[in-house]
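REVIEWER CHECKLIST
Item 1: Sequence provided? yes
Item 2: Single chain? yes
Item 3: Sequence as submitted:
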Amino acid sequence: MNLLNDARVLTSLLRGIPRKGEHASRLNDFYRHQAGDYDRFRERLLSGRRELMKRLPLQSGDLVVELGGGTGRNVDFLGTRANLLQRYEVVDLCQPLLDIAKQRAARNPCVQAIEGDATTYRPGRPADVVVFSYALSMIPMWRDAINNAVAMLKQGGTLAVVDFYVSAARPPAGMARHGRFTRWFWPRWFGHDGVRLSSESLETVSACTDRFHLVEDLAKVPYVPSVRVPFYTYMGRKLQKV
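Item 4: Structure as written out by the authors:
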């Protein structure tokens, strides 16, 4: 049965995301036939999420906002720490994925599934933590999403990101440098499904927050055992106003 479900997901991936229409309608069309299998399939592809969520600096009464949060799967990785939170807001434009998030919210009173745009949505009070989990690479106006995330954070709040990327040709000292083929191949592979890989998102979040955690690594790709795709996990604190 899992093979048949995987075949449905892989068929959607091979078709790629629609090229016409508003971003929300394109997402809905792309994920409509794979939403039910999203968490199970992506568990093998989206590395680093569990580790990032376990490292989030959380305190009692915190508000966590996950922009582009899809099904809300990441809240499960918090385990019993989710009970500390006042609220965990899962914000997304994709209705099929939000439908799964609403099912998760029905089982967890701290979770709210909210239809909203990552570039404009604001919670009712400053957030303690804002999370992007494999979301920035799928948001066309990703710089606006980062600016919005930083703006909604309280002073000293945490911006946490995990995503695919490729390094710059000449990255800063101490950071990973990917070969020419990697920098050419993966943006084209993922671009078919509307996923944009570059070095720019990591550079941008590093520039606008005070970094206290960064891991650059390689992830397995389902059914393609011989290749690895670069990803990073990042956490930084909102810079204090001078």
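Item 5: Key structural point noted by reviewer: DSSP finds eight helices and seven strands in the chain.
Item 6: Recommendation: ____
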